[in-house]
Amino acid sequence: MRVALHTCCGPCASACVPALRALKDEPVLIFSNDNIDCEEEFLLRLENAQRLAQTEGVELFSTPYNHEDWLEKVAKGYENEPEKGARCERCFRYNLEKTAKFAKEHGLDAFTTSLTVSPHKVSPVIFKCGEEVALDNTPFLKVDFKKNNGFLCSTKRAKELNLYRQSYCGCEFSKKHLDKKP
Asked: Are the beta carbons of 178 and 167 closer than 8 angstroms?
């Protein structure tokens, strides 16, 4: 199957591409991340996703950056939510919905996300969001990429490929969360 892989960043996707291939699927990377707080960070992460795509020999598509849309549709009224709270769930749904639409419009067989490789993300919540936005004939694949040392693999491959590893999820609210840690 050709599977649209919502790609949050190159390092996370670096473990997901071989995992999907092990399942006999061919990933197509979809970089859709309007949650990223500034265009400079968006472009840096996109550049690293492009480097990964070139290394792996996979296609990569990017949706246009529109943080203002994300702020209005996802964050408005949820600015003070904690990490892993309602804002994050809304964000997952927002990016997965864009990925599902892309997959359907481009005749891909299914879609999934690299978000589940992170130990900081709750996979069942992501699975719920993916299933809610799935479209006819384009199902969401529930793959928990953190299993079988997926996160360790992603950090190792990111280092091998010299990929930029960011220290926060992407939005300004997750950055504030980091600033509060001792």
From this structure: yes
Q: pTM for this one?
A: 0.94
In this predicted structure, the answer to whether residue 167 has a pLDDT above a threshold of 90 is: no
Q: Which candidate, 119, 49, 117, 129, places its Cα nearest to that of 88? A: 129
* 152-160 contact pairs (CB < 8 A, 24+): 153/14, 153/15, 153/18, 154/11, 154/12, 154/14, 154/15, 154/16, 154/117, 155/11, 157/11, 157/14, 157/15, 158/10, 158/11, 158/14
Neighbours of 64 (CB within 10 A): 7
pLDDT band at 177 (very low <50, low <70, confident <90, very high): low
The pLDDT tens digits of the residues spanning 19-30 come to 999 999 999 999
Which residues neighbour 16 within 8 Å (Cβ) at sequence distance 6 or greater? 5, 7, 27, 112, 114, 117, 143, 145, 150, 154
Q: What is the pLDDT of residue 182?
A: 47
Q: What is the CATH number of domain 2-179?
A: 3.40.50.620
Residue-range domain boundaries for the chain? 2-179
